[in-house]
Amino acid sequence: MATSHLPPFIRRQQVLLLYRRIFQTIQQVPNDSDHKYLKDWAREEFKRIQEDTIRMMITQGNMQLKELEKTLALAKS
């Protein structure tokens, strides 16, 4: 089953599991400054990806809305 066809709650669980696994792995880094750097990096990457995904979904939704509006306008004419 492709990831894009999974229910949202399962995708969310997969992302949370990945996030936890990354942080568990980072815990094993012995150097404190590397440890902190990697934790900050992981948090920022997840935040950036989340924001990018939201922007992409809004753009895609707006494009689909415009197509629907065009289709409805054609159907009325």
Automatic annotation (TrEMBL):
GO terms for cellular component: mitochondrion. CDD domains: Complex1_LYR_LYRM2. Pfam families: Complex1_LYR (PF05347). Keywords: Mitochondrion, Transit peptide. Residues 13-67 form the Complex 1 LYR protein domain. InterPro entries: Complex1_LYR_dom, Complex1_LYR_LYRM2. It is found in: Mitochondrion. The keyword Transmembrane does not apply. The keyword Mitochondrion applies. It comes from the Eukaryota. Its main location: mitochondrion. Involved in efficient integration of the N-module into mitochondrial respiratory chain complex I. Belongs to the complex I LYR family. This is LYR motif-containing protein 2. It comes from Macaca nemestrina (Pig-tailed macaque).
